[in-house]
Design goal:
Layout: E1 18-20, E2 23-30, E3 50-54, E4 56-57, E5 104-105, E6 112-121, E7 129-138, E8 140-145, E9 148-153, E10 160-166, E11 170-179, E12 203-213, E13 216-226, E14 231-240, E15 247-256, E16 264-270, H1 272-280, E17 287-295, E18 311-321, E19 324-334, E20 339-342, E21 345-348, E22 351-353, E23 355-360, H2 374-386, E24 391-394, H3 401-410, E25 413-417, H4 433-449, E26 455-459, H5 468-482, E27 487-489, E28 503-505, H6 520-523, H7 533-537, E29 543-549, E30 567-568, H8 570-581, H9 588-611, E31 618-622, H10 650-655, E32 660-665, E33 670-672, E34 676-685, E35 694-701, E36 707-713, E37 725-732, E38 740-750, E39 755-765, E40 777-779, H11 782-790, E41 794-797, E42 829-834, H12 855-858, E43 864-865, E44 877-881, E45 889-890, E46 892-897, E47 900-905, H13 917-931, H14 948-954, H15 956-960
Helix pairs in contact: 2-3, 4-5
């Protein structure tokens, strides 16, 4: 007798047929693995052992060890400086260990744990087979009934089920051994097992039940919807403990949930001869099947993201074996939903669909394991939908039943993956045990959850190594034959193979792994015209862009108070200490908000580039919420709890990410007054139907929201898709005497009053003028600057900096993923922060954070490390260093040297002023500042004063060249 993940729903039995085993169990830890040899299964469960509540994990209930330097983590640590760097020495002290690379559990345990309890089998169960179900186990379970070993299970994705046979009524002891060590090498960073995400917990969560079953049972039900016929084929597999299933009937009844139509029923009868015939033809003894077609009516509604109509299917099996009639019932939900492809587009029920997904990486900090209730998952899905998304990709893991139910109800799509990230030492296609496990787990997932209409797509797992293409070609063909209701791709990220329905590839995005400062966002001036047409033309299949974004924001240190459960944000404590050591503790929130604004605009360009591409399949964000592992990857506009951080609302995000998004194709973002503004208008519309009687409009607004110019473009109907261009607009920008921020808004309004709008910031600067005579000195020579300032002059120093001035690689974009995991890939900063009211910036409109007008100023600039300056020196423009380094950086700062003023700027303000209007304007703003007295404090001079040698040390590498 072994566990079997073959049933795809629970019996619709009365309360007397199910015993809930939730409650107190005895617990005994077995770190040395001696329990089996010492026959712990035969020992009294009340014999002085600990007590634990199931469902739950033993770690969240205080069992296990304190975290130490030698804790045997499950997960790769790329940057191992924690173990050697003197800076981390205080965090390696026994009893006070804090790790920087992921959330830290209050207790850690890796090994076997024994759970046991006595159950009372009622008299009414006599003659029934008894089944134990454990909804989610981490990881391998082994079960003993009294002193007899029943079997074991090792699914990370589906319930462990044990057929206990016919039990004598009365008391029986259940002993369960759960081992959370690596049973199969699925990859140390797979989100199904890793400390990077949920944590390597030990226990059982979700439903724990004993169920009485009749001799002949329904072992599996598959629903095959037919949208065109408005029907469903119901394939019912039967199983029996005897050689045959006897005679009986199978009745399938379908009713629409929330609808008025009466239920529809179809019944089929089978005879024992059929079962004998199956056995004679070599079929599995004790098995059989019945197929039924249920017509739902021509007005039966379909299921999709806009109209999630659900149906409840009840299959009732009535059999007679040895003259005894018994009944088994299965109930599940399904939808009339067909997913397919048409050229390079994904279709749902024949309509083109654009995938707007984000990752769900099994990050649940309070418990360390995923929730099994529908409400928790509905909250996450509602948050995603409010941000304009329509899919959750479960990265290298499969969620519990409740997640599918919530997605079904909400009309939200799901990409499921096997619990495998066979990389970083693991691999597939090399005859390792993981090869069989991929088939084992994905088959179990399809049989258990395949009926859910939200289950749209599947990959074997994430980013494989090994002989992946050959192995996964066979796998895709296998699972497609097994269950044709979904789209299949070999793996998330790669490989691209002909067998795929959809290609998941990491190339088409704004910044790719390893591009650093050569990426489009860092290496090319801002525009909104780039799309991925060349990728679409290169493949006959839909493309989903893999893990786009990965833009970091600064840690939200106030978030620490949320970690009231198992996981602790000790990594944030370290980062807070580093920030305080750099004299910047009071800037934590400022860094968060400024970097968050940059993160938001980078995601906007990432999403819009995909939406601009005709024929594109979609994208998966990495991610809408933070990923707390892999060195701490704070890539979300939401935190690890799926909650806002204070700089991006769902409504803001949904303006550029949703079913209907107006788009403007702008060749640049920075202009000179009197220039022509030319842009193309496009609408990415993947709603339920074309927009009839629609008006596509544009407006140019000033900083106060006043309209400077406006117009309409396009036709009266906005078709489904994103291939249609609605025209090109040219307007002349106003001649200006001062710099201005403008906003271009494009909107779509229907006769029914629906309105969809999106916008882009533009900057317009005055034309170049000859420099005015000034008493201030502008120089690139440090010694000349120091001498002049010492003599009482006002000086603007534009030093010649660059490598090897510092090891800080400054770009426009924020850190990609994080510097610890990427082995210090550039850029190393998280944008800039500044006071937009500072008088030095009076002629250079800005908002306190990086925006597109800063691109030409930051491109090629060098960040100066100001740690040797007094902490009172707050840069006028300050790059935000990565939280691992927390250096005080500057691009523009001011000090008093001798009797004079010294303003230092390491941005290029002098090259090619005719074609660099932002640099030209900032130089003009600084010149005006140097000539005025807005800098004066109450003592009539800027503070603080510093010695010339300190300035030399800050800029020393530039002097040495």
């Amino acid at each position: 007798m072994t566990s079997s993940p073959t049933t795809d729903s629970r019996p619709a039995a009365g309360h007397d047929a199910v015993l809930d085993l939730a409650g107190t169990w005895s617990l005994r830890l077995d770190p040395e693995g001696v329990g089996d040899r010492e026959r712990w299964f035969a020992q009294d469960p009340d014999g002085g052992q600990d007590r634990v509540e199931l469902p739950g994990s033993l770690q969240e209930q205080g069992f296990g060890d304190e975290v130490g330097v030698d804790t045997p983590w499950t997960g790769l640590v790329v940057d191992r400086s924690f173990y050697t760097d003197e800076r981390y020495a205080p965090y390696r002290e026994p009893g006070a260990v804090s790790v920087p690379f992921w959330l830290q559990p209050r207790r850690y345990y890796r090994g076997a744990a024994w759970f046991s309890r006595v159950v009372e089998v009622p008299e009414s169960w006599r003659g029934h087979r008894v089944v134990l179900e454990l909804e989610r186990v981490h990881w391998e379970s082994t079960l003993w009934l009294d002193e007899d070993r029943v079997g074991s299970g090792r699914s990370l994705s589906t319930p462990h089920r044990y057929d206990l046979g016919e039990l004598e009524p009365g008391s029986h002891r259940l002993t369960l051994r759960v081992d959370n060590r690596t049973v199969v090498d699925v990859g140390p960073n797979a989100h199904s097992i890793s400390d990077h995400t949920q944590g390597n917990w030990n226990g059982v969560v979700g439903a724990l039940t004993l169920t009485a079953r009749p001799p002949v049972v329904i072992s599996h039900v598959m629903t095959l919807p037919d949208v065109e016929r408005r029907a469903v084929r119901v394939q019912v597999d039967l199983a029996s403990g005897t050689a045959g299933v006897g005679a009986g009937t199978v009745t399938a009844t379908v009713r629409r949930l929330g609808g008025d139509p009466a239920p529809v029923s179809v019944t089929a009868r089978f005879e024992s001869e059929q079962s004998r015939d199956l056995v004679e033809r070599g079929m599995v003894a004790g098995g059989g099947h019945v197929d039924l077609d249920v017509e739902l009516g021509q007005d039966a509604p379909t299921w999709d993201e806009f109209s999630p109509a659900l149906y409840e299917l009840t299959v009732e099996l009535e059999t007679t074996v040895d003259g005894i009639t018994s009944t088994d019932v299965r109930t599940l939900t399904f939808g009339l939903r067909e997913v397919g492809t048409e050229g390079t587009q994904i279709t749902v029920n024949g309509r083109p669909t654009f995938i707007r997904g984000t990752l769900e990486s099994c990050v649940h900090p309070l418990t360390g394991y995923p929730p099994t209730d529908v409400g928790s998952w509905r909250r996450i899905i509602d948050v995603c939908r409010a941000h304009g998304l329509n899919l959750l990709r479960f990265h290298s893991w499969c969620p519990p039943e409740a997640a599918f139910v919530a997605a079904d109800q909400a009309g939200f799509y799901v990409q499921v993956e096997g619990p495998v990230w066979a990389n970083q030492g693991a691999a597939i296609g090399e005859s390792r045990p993981v090869d069989a496990y991929v088939y084992e787990e994905t088959t179990a997932i399809l049989r258990t959850f395949g009926h859910h209409p939200s289950f749209l797509m599947m990959a074997h797992g994430n980013e494989p190594a090994g002989r992946d293409a050959e192995f996964l070609g066979h796998w895709v063909a296998h699972v497609r034959r097994l269950d044709p209701r979904h789209l299949y791709t070999s793996g998330a990220g790669w490989p691209v193979i002909p067998e795929n329905d959809v290609d998941s590839i990491s190339e088409p995005r704004v910044q790719r792994w390893g591009e650093e400062l050569e990426s489009r966002i860092n290496g090319r001036a801002p525009e909104t015209t780039t799309d991925y047409t060349e990728y679409v033309r290169a493949t006959p299949r839909p493309i989903i862009s893999h893990e786009i974004g990965q833009w970091c924001a600064y840690p939200n240190l106030a978030e620490r108070e949320k970690y009231t459960g198992l996981m602790q944000a000790r990594n944030f404590d370290i980062f807070a200490d580093f920030l305080a050591q750099g004299g910047m503790a009071d800037q934590a929130e400022e860094f968060l908000l400024a970097s968050g604004e940059l993160q938001k605009l980078c995601y906007k360009e990432d999403v819009e580039a995909a939406l601009r591409t005709p024929g594109f399949g979609g994208f998966h964000l990495l991610g809408l919420n933070d990923f707390p592992g892999q060195g701490t990857a704070l890539v979300g506009v939401l935190d690890a709890f799926w909650e806002e951080k204070g700089y991006c609302t769902a409504a803001e995000f949904a303006r550029f990410c949703g079913p209907t998004v107006p788009l403007a194709r702008l060749p640049k973002r920075v202009f000179t007054g009197g220039d022509d503004l030319t842009f193309g208008v496009q609408v990415a519309h993947f709603g339920p139907a074309p927009l009839e009687q629609a008006t596509v409009s544009w407006a140019l607004l000033d900083d106060d929201g006043e309209t400077l110019d406006e117009g309409t473009v396009g036709a009266s109907t906005v078709a489904l898709g994103n291939s249609e261009r609605h025209g090109e607009v040219t307007t002349t920008l106003p001649q200006l005497t001062a710099a201005a921020r403008l906003t271009l808004e494009v909107s779509v309004t229907t006769a029914a009053g629906e309105r969809y709008a999106n916008d882009w910031r533009l900057w317009v600067y005055p034309p170049a003028t000859p420099p005015r005579p000034t008493d201030a000195l502008t120089t690139r020579d440090l010694e000349e600057a120091l001498e002049a300032a010492g003599a009482g002059r006002t000086v603007l120093l534009l030093p010649e900096l660059g490598p090897p001035h510092t090891d800080v690689a400054l770009g426009f974009s924020p850190v990609f993923w994080n510097t610890a995991w990427t082995r210090n890939q550039a850029p190393h900063t998280l944008g800039i922060t500044h006071d937009p009211e500072h008088p030095a910036l009076a002629g250079f409109p800005s908002d306190g954070h990086t925006d597109w007008q800063w691109w030409e100023l930051l491109h090629g600039a060098s960040a100066m490390v100001l740690d040797e300056l007094p902490v009172e020196v707050r840069p006028i423009v300050q790059p935000i260093d990565t939280w691992f380094s927390a250096r005080r950086l500057g691009l523009l700062w001011e000090v008093r040297v001798g009797e004079g003023r010294l303003v230092v700027c390491s941005m290029d303000l002098h090259s090619d002023p005719g074609s660099r209007p932002a640099a030209r304007q900032l130089l003009a703003a600084l010149t005006a500042y140097l000539e005025g007295d807005a800098y004066l404090d109450g003592d009539g001079c800027p503070a603080p004063a510093v010695d010339a040698d300190v300035v030399r040390r800050v800029l020393a590498p530039a002097v040495a060249r």
